[in-house]
Amino acid sequence: xxxxxxxxxxxxxxxxxxxxxxxxxxxxxxxxxxxxxxxxxxxxxxxxxxxxxxxxxxxxxxxxxxxxxxxxxxxxxxxxxxxxxxxxxxxxxxxxxxxxxxxxxxxxxxxxxxxxxxxxxxxxxxxxxxxxxxxxxxxxxxxxxxxxxxxxxxxxxxxxxxxxxxxxxxxxxxxxxxxxxxxxxxxxxxxxxxxxxxxxxxxxxxxxxxxxxxxxxxxxxxxxxxxxxxxxxxxxxxxxxxxxxxxxxxxxxxxxxxxxxxxxxxxxxxxxxxxxxxxxxxxxxxxxxxxxxxxxxxxxxxxxxxxxxxxxxxxxxxxxxxxxxxxxxxxxxxxxxxxxxxxxxxxxxxxxxxxxxxxxxxxxxxxxxxxxxxxxxxx
Length: 379
What we know:
mainly alpha; two-stranded antiparallel sheet; two-stranded parallel ribbon; 4 strands; 63% helix
């Protein structure tokens, strides 16, 4: 398992594990000692001072990340604007330069480039790129240039209003985004489409699937406090065992969408010990159709988020025609958070690196962009 909790160093999230190595048990007293690194009169630490000179004191991605895309340390917005302008306006579109710039800058840096391009040329960079590109590469570049919340909102809207089944993408976005990013996504959704995402969920889904998506959209999952509540653990296992009783479905939704993941990991283990079957088997036995698909996806996210994404990437690559939308969404959305973890899970489960798999399957102009986001081969 890879760490799934993150702290903000700047505008993006970086993996860490802040929990105590020995969890506290509810009802037992424990003492702790905290050390103050600074006092009210002490200035910045040496590390902060050095980072400040580098321009990185309030940024992430340079260190302590499981993402493949990091803050570019030699970033010069003027140089990037000039490179992109030449790539777009020169004789023939220089796709390699466009890909090189955009896949080697953080999302925050790309936003700075976009604003500077507008100021210096009086032209919209995104529209200029769209006019210069086409097909899958155009869609990738548009997604790279959008704020993360806007990208998520568009993907969620397309999933809910599209002709396919909404549960797959909706669960992916609602269950894997950090609470602040999810709330921003839902706010952008309402602003851009003049309707709450919850209203679209109600109009496009029904039954258990609707209840599950609405619960996920609330973003009410508890954070891990370091306390093991054995009584609640026992109650949750019993509630999940009573799946055949009327109204028991709501207990599943409540537990899977609100309990913290460390608690759920113990519940899943206890459930298997008591019943002799994994929770996924119970879902397959007691739920059907889109509700079953959504619940299986959610359980997979809770168990191991990087493995969940590795499975989705593998499935997208196995289709007759690669599912470029899935490849693009996952590689872009996870490139600054945990794509290295996803790559490791992919290699471990399928015996081949994600990079090699993309090389073999992906064709056309977008190939170089997806490989650049993946970044490297896993030996």
